[in-house]
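BUG: 3D viewer hangs when loading the predicted structure for this chain

Environment: internal workstation, default settings.
Expected: structure renders.
Actual: progress bar stalls at 90%.

Input used:
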Amino acid sequence: LSSMNLSGTLSPGIGGLVNLRYFDLSYNEITGDIPKAIGNCSRLQCFYLNNNQLSGEIPAELGKLSFLKRLNICNNQISGSLPEEFGRLSSLVELVAYTNKLTGPLPRSIRNLKNLKTIRAGQNQISGSIPTEISGCQSLKLLGLAQNKIGGELPKELGMLGNLTELILWENQISGLLPKELGNCTNLETLA
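Structure tokens produced before the viewer hung:
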């Protein structure tokens, strides 16, 4: 149902779609927040809500979606922080959340996301430092956090991400030197 000029809010009734695997409402005019009932869609693998007018916070119940591989919520007005429950998304491969109003630090539970290849969360207000637990994301290829409020020094644990090809952190408040361990990222092609 992408690009259908749909408007209104997402009904909590969505929780009744327990066999839903693919859900795409991108490029519409959907408002309101993501209903907590989404946690009942336990078979969901792809969830696309990008390019709408969604607001509110990401519900912790999203963490119940253990089969979720792709989550795209970019270009909305979603606020709050990424919940710790994100660490339960053990199948997650791609997280796209840029151009929202996300705040707070990245959750330390990120260490559990062994299959995660892409994080694109630029143009938000994410703060704190990049957690050392990022080292758990052994499949990570792209870490895009440009235009946020991330501070502190880059953790040496970034050097443990042997598959990393793109590290994009410009326009933040990061201090200190590049950790020498970053030299272990021999697949790195873009550092910005």
